[in-house]
Amino acid sequence: MSDRKVMLVVAGHARDAADCRQLLDMLGLALPKPRRAPGRPTVDHGHGDHRTYIKGCRCTRCREAMRVRAVEKRAAWRSAPSAADRAGHGKLSTYKNYGCRCEPCKAANTEATRAGRAARREKAALAETGGAR
Q1: Which of 47, 71, 91, 106 has the fewest CB atoms within 10 Å distance of its CB?
Q2: Are the C-beta atoms of residues 105 and 95 closer than 8 Å to each other?
Q3: Is the pLDDT of residue 81 over 90?
Q4: Contact between 7 and 24 (Cβ < 8 Å)
Q5: What global pTM score does this model have?
Q6: 85-123: per-residue pLDDT in tens?
Q7: What distance in Å separates the CA atoms of residue 91 and residue 44, rounded to the nearest whole number?
Q8: Percent of the chain whose predicted confidence (pLDDT) is above 90
Q9: Sign of torsion over alpha carbons 32, 38, 44, 48
Q10: Domain map of the chain by residue range?
Q11: Residue 62's closest CA among 53, 70, 71, 74?
């Protein structure tokens, strides 16, 4: 059995990190060295920053910062017509995010709207009948 497999078995049976180290010492195995040097230290941007929202915070200030960032990104995308070309035409996201109003993008939006309305109608019909089909 390889040292790695032995370490995994020991780690699975240890009560905590100290117990795991003690068991590995008793077996004469050393903890492996990290495969790479640690990256840059983490930075705390504080609340009210979109990066804190991305890390998982859902407070009001972080949500607002993320919303503002999304609005600014969409505005930047809409200001550059070539961005819609790179994103690809005929997709709902190109219609909404890039503000493209070419025929393929308008058709994608129309189809998505029709599908959404049909789904809502079906859901309402199921609710009226008590969920039976």
Answers
A1: 71
A2: yes
A3: no
A4: yes
A5: 0.50
A6: 888 999 999 999 888 999 999 999 999 999 999 999 999
A7: 37
A8: 38
A9: negative
A10: 1-31, 53-128
A11: 53
What is the residue whose two structure tokens read 């200030």?
Answer: 61
Phi, psi of 49 (to 5 degrees): -125, 140
Q: Are 98 and 87 in contact (CB under 8 A)?
A: yes
Quickly list H helices, the chain: 3-13, 17-27, 50-54, 60-79, 81-87, 92-98, 103-128
Amino acid at 1: M
- Separation CA 81–CA 99 (nearest Å): 9
State both tokens at 128.
């009226």
DSSP codes joined into one string, 75-110: HHHHH-HHHHHHH-SS-HHHHHHH---SHHHHHHHH
Model confidence band, residue 34 (pLDDT cutoffs 50, 70, 90): low
Burial class (CB in 10 A: 0-12, 13-18, 19+), 38: exposed
**Helix (H), strand (E) counts: the chain:** 7, 0
Q: Residues 53, 65: contact at Cβ < 8 Å?
A: yes
